[in-house]
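Limitations

Structures in this collection are predictions, not experimental determinations, and the ligand pose is part of the prediction. Treat each record accordingly. The example that follows, with 4'-deoxy-4'-aminopyridoxal-5'-phosphate as the small molecule, is included so readers can see exactly what is and is not provided: the inputs are given verbatim, and the output is the predicted complex.
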Amino acid sequence: MKKKHLFTPGPTPIPSDALLAMAQPIDYHRSEDAVTLIKDVLEKLKHVFQTENDVLFLTSSGTGAMDGAVANLLCQGDKALVIQSGKFGERWAEICEAYGVEVITINVTWGDSVAPEAVEAQLTVNPDIKAVFATLCETSTGALHNIQALAGLTQSSPTLLVVDAVSALGADDLQMDNWGVDVVVSCSQKGLMTPPGLAFAALNHRAWEAVERSDLPKYYLDFRKAHQRGLEGSVPYTPAVTLLAALQCALNHICAEGIRPTIDRHNRLATATRSAVKAIGLPLFATSPANTLTSIRLPEEIDGKAFVKMMREKHSVTYAGGQGELSGKIVRIAHLGWMNENDVIVAISAFERGLAEIGYDVPLGAGVAAAQEGLRK
Ligand code: PMP
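Predicted complex:
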C-alpha cells in the first residue's frame, strides 16, 4: 500500500475525526440530532465567513453556489461585470450567459490580479451594472484578488459584489462584514477540510433585497428555501448528512484555532513554499500569490503534464497541473486546509527530487532549506 500525499487545491486532506464521523451509522435528516447538527454547522460557518449574516448550504459542489448566486440575485436583462483572470472567472461569465444575463468582462492576463481602477472605470461607464462577480483566489493561476478594494467601490453604490471564495475561504483573508462584501460563496472540499459535496453562500441584507426582486428561474438552488429551512435546522431536500457530520468536526478545528490564526498559518506555509520555489530557481506564476496555493511556472523543456503524472503514479504525490491555456506549463502546490509545516517540507522535497529525476538541474535541498528558514521565522 502506497502512502499518498495530496497537494491539490481541492479536494484537500481530511482530519481523522472527520473521517471517522463519516463512518458512523447514517442518521435521518429530520431527526432532532440532525437539527442540532445543521444549526451548529451553520453557526460555526459564520466564524469562517467572518460575518454575522446567515450562511446557507446546498448539497452540491462549489459551482452550485455560484450558479445559485446568479439565479437568485439577478433579473432577466440585468447587466453583470465579470472579472476573468482564469478558469473560475470564466465560469462566472458562463453561468451568467446561461441565464441570459448581459455580461461585461474585464480580461486580466492569467497570473495577474485585477486592478481595482479597471473595475471602477467599468462601473463609471456602466452605472446600471447590477453585480460584480469576482474571485478571491483564482485557483487556476494561484492569483489573489484585492476584494477589499473592490468592496470599497461597490459598497456605496447599488451594485452588489459577489465573491467566489470556493478555494480560498479559511486560507486567504475575506472579511465579509468589515469590508462590505455582499455575497460570498464557497464549498466543503478545500479550506473546510471536508469531502466534496456541500456548497455555501452568505448574503447580506442588500443581497437579500436583490433576491426578493430576482425573476430568473430557479428550483433546487433557490436560496430563500435553503435559507429559511436552514434557520430551523432543516433542509428543503435530503442533504448529504454524512458530509455535514464531517464538516462539523472540521469546523470545530477551525473554530478552536480561530479564523485569524488559521489564515496566518496558511500565510506562513505559503510564504515558506514561495521562498522554496525561488531557491530552486523557478519563477512563481502569480504576480500576487494567494495563501491557498503556489503556482510555479515550469521551464519550456519540462512537460508539466508528464511531471505531474510521474509524481502521482510513481511517488504517490499529487500536485495539480495547469488548466486550460496553462496545461503542461505550470504546477500548482496547495498548502490548504489540514496542513502544517511538515506538509510543506514533504511537498518541496518531493518536488525537488522529482525535478532531479527527470534530469532538470536542481540544487537538491535548496528549496527545503529555504522553506525551513521561512518556517523558523
Ligand atoms: N471556483 C474556484 C475558485 C475553484 O477553485 C473551484 C474548484 N476548483 C470552483 C469554483 C468550482 O468548484 P466545484 O468544482 O466544487 O464546483
